[in-house]
Design brief:
With 190 residues, the chain is mostly helical. The chain has 9 helices and 2 strands. The protein has helices spanning 2-20, 34-40, 44-51, 54-62, 79-82, 97-108, 113-124, 136-154, 160-179; strands at 25-27, 30-31. Strands 1-2 form a two-stranded antiparallel sheet. Strand 1 (25-27) and strand 2 form a beta hairpin. The model is unreliable at 1-24 (pLDDT under 50).
Length: 190
């Protein structure tokens, strides 16, 4: 039991220390971006709260070679999350280990608002809201972020940053939609 609390305390210190330096990250594709979070109204306390979720702490500790069962006495993941089909690898989307770990936890407990908010932020950091040219990947992440933002709202979250992120993401997606040529469903049109 003491080991469990020691490991959680260590994880908390690592997360807090990394954010204090404003360059800590759980993975290569999810680094702390203070200016981006400030634009959306997401404060450091929110990020630390979300990253302290047991599923995310387990992922972070696994990067240091600490076994997940040493950190918690929770029941093992539900069989649905472990199920994999025999779909050819080329047809499966490539997702990061962090996203896979958190998405698996979310699918096991879809009513967990903290995981929905974390996944929303994860996808926002790769969305059209980030600087740079628009591309298919940014559009994909924007749409996924909208799903998780709306899911967090449906689960009862009333954080102001969620409304702001929804509004900004919708605006960016609408700008792309209006810049595309119209699609016709009439017969005989190319």
């Amino acid at each position: 039991m003491k080991l469990k609390y020691l490991l959680f305390a260590l994880a908390g210190v690592l997360v807090t220390a990394s954010h204090a330096q404003a360059k800590g990250s759980l993975s290569e594709d999810f680094a702390y971006d203070g200016s981006f979070y400030n634009e959306l109204g997401i404060n450091l306390g929110t990020i630390i709260s979300l990253e302290s979720h047991p599923a995310i702490v387990r992922f972070g500790l696994s990067r240091f070679g600490v076994a997940a069962d040493a950190t918690t006495s929770e029941t093992p993941p539900a069989p649905i999350a472990d199920y994999e089909t025999a779909i050819p690898h080329a047809s499966q989307p490539v997702i990061s280990p962090l996203e896979k770990a958190v998405l698996t936890a979310y699918l096991d407990t879809p009513g967990d608002v903290r995981l929905a908010k974390f996944l929303a932020i994860y996808h926002l950091t790769q969305s059209l809201l980030k600087n740079g040219p628009a591309n298919g990947e940014k559009v994909k992440h924007s749409i996924i972020a909208l799903y998780f933002l709306n899911r967090a709202r449906d689960l009862g979250s009333n954080d102001k940053w969620i409304g702001k992120a929804l509004e900004k993401t919708d605006k960016k997606l609408n700008a792309i939609k209006t810049s595309l040529p119209g699609v016709s469903v009439e017969e005989g049109t190319p």
